Structure formats: structure tokens, C-alpha cells
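User: For documentation purposes, I need each entry recorded in a consistent format: the amino acid sequence on its own, followed directly by the corresponding C-alpha cells. There are two entries in this batch. Please keep commentary to a minimum and don't merge the entries.

Assistant: Recorded as requested. Entry 1:
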Amino acid sequence: MFYIFSMDHNNILGVVLAGGKSQRFGEDKSQVKLNDKRLIDYILTEIITEFNEILIIANNSIDFMPSPKIIKVEDDEKDLGPLGGILTAMKWINKNKKNYKWISTFPSDTPFFNKTILNNFYKKININKGQLFFIKSNQTRHNIFGLWSIELLDQLEEDLMIKGERKVELWANKVGVQTIDMQFKNKDPFFNINTKEDLEQAKLIMQTYD
């Protein structure tokens, strides 16, 4: 079998999707502090060593950890959800004549995810089996933690811009997503913060996290 590490790892662009409106939270949650660290910086800290470049898709003016690797852009078309951010990243690759063949996507609100999980995800991928891969853990599929071939660009653009598809779940099923199962017995590294109550719970979890 041919796994992703048989490819040139330089072929992957890291993409953090931070273009949501954070309506349930009431403010831009990527900027919220958890133990004196911005929420978006948790994921950036973990993935910064894994990619040559990281693209942040965000429509607001936001702060994030300084690095020459990190580039922030706005969605090409607003209010299209995560799929719009993914399309923006794919088009950015073509527009800037980059050589990336894949994008690896992350949300900005999961402070307990780490690069060990990311690398284990990559190691389990057989790139001959598809063009889209998601992590699944404990019976839940995580649709934003994905590896997407940029060969999906044309179909994504048509489905999003012409057919009006907005739901990642449905679109991924349509194109034939492959899921990579990973099990975590104790703490959930995919815990995401959508509300103020989630933030308080994350603070409690952080007290016991190794």
C-alpha cells in the first residue's frame, strides 16, 4: 500500500478554517483566551512544524501567533460555510501557482488536538483509495479534520456555486469520503468550543490534561 508519507510531505498545505460567525459563542471565538492563549493559537502551535505554509481563512481582522509560514486570507465568496473556505484554499493554491496537491484542514476551536494525532491519521491513509479523508473517533466523524485532494476543486466549485451545496457532511458523502478510525479512551482531543459553557468546560479539562 502507498501511504501519504510515500508522497512528498511538501505537497500538503495546512488550512485553518476560522471564517465562521461564532453566533453561538457571541464573539469571534478564535480570539478568545483559554489559559492566556488565543484559541486559534492552540491548533497553530501543533501544526506549525508540520507544513511549509499554513493558510488561515478568516473574514475578520484577527490576531494569531507570529510566523512567516502563516498567511491569512478572506473567503473568495462569503457565507458559504466551511466548504467555501476549502474552495478558497484550493483556488489560492492555483492563483499563487503553488505546487500543493492536497490541503489538510483544521478548525480553530479544538484546543486539545495535537500533531501526534495528525501524523497517526496520515500514516493510516492509503492515497490510492480516494481523494478525501476524514478522521473518525469514537463513532463520530470529524468533517473539518480532513485531507482533500485539490483535484476536487472543479466539482466542489460547481456543487457549491451552482448547485448550492453547503453541508460538508452531504458533499463528502457524495464524493466518496474515506474515514480513518482512531480511538481515544479517556479525554476527547476533538472537544470543540461553540459556547461560553464549552469554554468553561475546557478550562476544567485543561486542569487535568497532560
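Entry 2:
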Amino acid sequence: MTNSKTGYRTIAIWAAILAVAAIAVAWAIPYIYGNAGVRSMVYIRPGMDIVALGDTLQIYHSDGFARRTARVLAWLDVDLSARYGAYEINPNDNPIAVAKKIRNHEQTPVKFTFNNLRLKEQFSQRASQQLMMHENDIETLLNDSATCAAYGKTPATITNILLPDTYEMYWNISPGKLLERLHSYYEQFWNSDRQAKAKALGLTPDEVQTLASIVEEESAKTDEYGKIARLYLNRIERGIPLQADPTIKFAIGDFSIRRITRAMLAVPSPYNTYANTGLPPGPIRIASKRAIDAVLNAPQHNYLYMCAKEDFSGYHNFTASYSQHLANARRYQAELNRRNIK
């Protein structure tokens, strides 16, 4: 009888153990096999706590997945204030894997893209929109003489290291590190071949980019870039003022101007290429790599004058004759008047 009771007690104990184990397994399964289901990018921002992170996860994933991930982070005692960054969650990631990724600060690089920008203020704004930095912080560095000098630039030429493209970097990169990264890409771009071409033109890389910025502002037609670049190179060689209308717009601070007046041509500024000979002290926009290469590879011709075509096609009439240029200009001015463009 005693052995029978002992046997029943043993069976009961094992049944209880198995029941507890089954409950534990059932409880653990969602943590191990409960996958995210969809791909997402989660950003941990300054001031975010685990509760806020859980709320963010719920935007992309199920409430259960979000709660369990937040719970694991709490168990691991993860301090999110040291984990700022962007983290990609893959469809097959479970809550434990996501929590470990964040705990180990295994960030995912993000794409940082900028193009078609004129001013450093616009670049700073774009950086703040895509990366974890405030636009004032990056703009302050771009205007700081000591920072610019560290890259061999001035506040007028520092934008030359900002080559429009798409870059991969961590979302929480600092403004200083961002400039370091972009400068390294800039140095790779200005390889020995490009430097040799600039030297053959009698220009420094900074001067090439200044000229490229003017070329790019002169025309939206990329197939004209080389021809326009050579025209200005011809003027530089002959000591003729560039007389580039976009530099007047830059000097005034208004690129929306559609018609340059005589009064505008008198604006006192080192960027006024009607009043000053040679290139201005810096670029008037962030020049594209395409425009830079157009300057470096500008085809030979003897043109000295250009005027927008009166058909408003966006293309220009080129000539080496001043009298022909005046005729071209009269036709264009007449069309401006006809269209009542002031």
C-alpha cells in the first residue's frame, strides 16, 4: 500500500513538473518563435524610454511582439540613452533577437542623400531631416573658420567638400563626423587624374568647383555644361569679366529673379562678376560631380558670349562675335517684353 501511495505521489510530482514545463514552453514560444512578420526601421531618439519604444514598435508590428520586445529589454536592463540609432528589424527576428540587437548597439547604416542644393543652410536642413542632428549644429560648423581651415577651406568654399550623392552612414553620426566622412569621399573624388586636369586649366580644385557652380546655375541642360564651361575658361584666359547673371542673383540673395536689370549689375559684392574680373571667392551653389567633370573636360571652342534662346527652350545661343551677341540679346529681350516678364 505504501509503495502504491509513493508511486502515485511520484506520478503527481512529475505531472506537476510537466505541467509547469508545458506552461513555461507555451509562455516562451512567442519570445523565441514569435517573429516580427514585416521589415521595419526603428529609430531610438534622445529621451525615448522602453515604453515609448514599445509604442513605436506597435506602429509596424503586432501589439504582442512590441510588448514582448519591450519586456525583454527591461529584463536585460538596457539603457536606451546609450543606444541612440537606427535598427532594422527583419521579418524573421524574434523579440529576443531585437532586444539583443539594441542592447549590443548593432545599428543599421541608413542612406543619406542630397542633391540640387544651393546653400549650406539647405544642406544643414537636409542633414537634419535624414540624420539625428540639429540643422543649427551642422550649419555652425560650416560657418566656423577653424573647422573650415581644418579641411583646407574657408566658409566660402567649405561646401566644396559636400559632393551631392547618396551615402551610407549611421543615423546617429555627429555633425563633425559627418563632415569627416564627406571630406574623405571628396578626397577620393579629387583623384590624381582630376587634379591633373584642373592644373592643366590653370585652376585649383576649389576654382573648378566655383566655375562648375556657375555653369550649373546657367543652364538646366546638362549637355550644355561643357560648352558653357569653356566659354568662361576663354574669358578667364583673356582677362574678360565673366559677366555671369547667376552670380548677381547670388550676390543679391534671390535666385527667383528672372530678369537682370542695370541696377542689379551695380550691386557691390565680390560675387558680382560684372564688376570684378575672374572667379568669385567661392561657389554659388553646391556643384554636382557632373558639372565639375564638365569643367574639367570642357571641349575647345572660341565662344565668348552666350544668351538664352528666345524660344525659352532652356538652351543658349553662343558666339564669338559681340555684335552677334547683341543681336541675340535683343531677340531675347523682345521675347521677355512680349511675355511681360519683369
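Summary note for entry 2:
The chain has three domains: 8-103, 110-189, 192-301.
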